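pasting for the record
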Amino acid sequence: MEKQKGSNRRSFLRGALVAAGATSATILTAGTAVGKAGKIASDKSAGPILYRRTEESERYYKTLYT
C-alpha cells in the first residue's frame, strides 16, 4: 500500500514538472517568434480598420485614468 501511494505522488510531480517545462518552452519560443517578426505598421495593414483614435475616444480614455 505504501509503494502505491509513493508512485502516485511521483507521477503527479513528474507530470507537474513536464507541464512546467512545456509551458516555459512555449513561452520562450513564442518570444523569439515575435521578436523575429518585427513590428507591423498600422497603416500598412491589409485587414479592416477596427479602431480609430478620435478626440471623443481620447476624452473617454482620459476619464478612465483620472
